[in-house]
Amino acid sequence: MTKYNCKKLVFSSSATVYGNPASLPIKEDFPLSTTNPYGSTKLFIEYILKDLYKSDPTWSIAILRYFNPIGAHSSYLLGEDPNGIPNNLMPYIVKVAMKELDHLNVFGNDYDTKDGTGVRDYIHVVDLARGHIKAIEKIMKTNQIDCYNLGTGHGYSVLEIVNTFEKINNVKIPYQIVERRSGDIAECYADPLYAKQELNFTCTKTLEDMVRDSYQYIVHHKK
Ligand code: UDP
Predict the structure, then answer these.
(1) Ligand 1 midpoint to CA 155 (Å)
(2) CA dist 46 to 59, 69, 124, 148, 175, Å?
(3) For the chain, percent helix, then strand, then coil, each to nearest 5?
(4) What per-residue string of b and e applies to 136-156 under the rule 16 or more CB within 10 Å gives b?
(5) What region does 32 belong to: left with phi over 0, alpha with psi -120 to 50, or beta?
(6) Is 146 left (phi over 0), alpha (psi -120 to 50) or beta?
(7) Residue 197 and residue 78: Cα distance in Å, rounded?
(8) Residue range 100-124: mean pLDDT, rounded
(9) pTM confidence score
(10) Which numbered atom of ligand 1 lies nearest the CA of 188?
(11) Percent of the chain beyond pLDDT 70?
(12) Which of 61, 110, 112, 123 is the most exposed place for a label (fewest CB within 10 A)?
């Protein structure tokens, strides 16, 4: 970057840097901590970028804290098809829908949430991509470092995701409740206001769009 005198950077961070938030929705100025090693790598890099900016304020850096990206481009040319057994909820559900896996394990139904299962803020990958364009537009005209939540502001439980997936895609997703997964938190959703004010960014896609596109990408991909 030095060679090309490039001092503009967008960093893909994660909502996991908020750790187990004391309240919801999560705002960008909430305290930062982590509950897993993945989160620690994101948080360390945020600190490195903040130090970099302190040492040279001619940089302009946007730190984007992604909530839970799912979905695929509606052309179904770009999407997610992980090898092996997925760790994340949506690719796992898709493999169950395709009968590559037999059932979904729901990690706990005794959380303090609407139905006891974990609640997350799922964002369509196309909205996420639009958020990056807005962030680039911002850093092209400013010299600052700032953090932005990229989420919809809505929290959906694991069972709401399963039910919506079944309804929209007309498939059955058998599931069983198992132990909580270590490092998971009960509930996580964004306050999307700062990204709206500063980046003029808002999400346009619904949960129905997300579950349809996640599934249809694989259906098209496997043809
Ligand atoms: N989850 C689940 N079964 C799975 C994968 C995930 O019940 O096979 C739950 C997980 O406990 C969390 C939510 O689904 O409440 C989203 O998990 P994911 O791994 O997709 O994202 P995270 O928020 O953990 O980064």
Answers:
(1) 13
(2) 14, 20, 24, 12, 37
(3) 35, 20, 45
(4) eebbeeeeebbbbbbbbbbbb
(5) beta
(6) beta
(7) 30
(8) 98
(9) 0.97
(10) 23
(11) 100
(12) 112
Tokens 């090309």 found at? 4
Ligand 1 atom at minimum distance from 183 CA: 24
Q: Whose CA is nearest to atom 14 of ligand 1?
A: 89
Residue 88 Cα to ligand 1 middle (Å): 5
Per residue in 38-86, pLDDT (tens digit) is 999 999 999 999 999 999 999 999 999 999 999 999 999 999 998 899 9
Q: Encoding tokens for residue 159?
A: 């069972």
68 sits in which H/E element: strand 68-70
Residues 6+ apart with CB under 8 A from 42: 13, 14, 16, 17, 34
* Both tokens assigned to 192: 């999307």
How many CB atoms sit inside 10 A of residue 101's CB?
A: 16
Which atom, in ligand 1's list, is nearest to the CA of 107? 7
State both tokens at 90. Answer: 């949506």
For a mutational test of ligand 1's pocket, the pick from 20, 42, 184, 207, i.e. the residue with the most ligand atoms closer than 8 A to its C-beta, is 184
Structure tokens at 173: 């997703």
> Contact, 195 vs 132, CB < 8 A?
no
pLDDT (tens digit, 9 = 90+) per residue, 5-49? 999 999 999 999 999 999 999 999 999 999 889 999 999 999 999
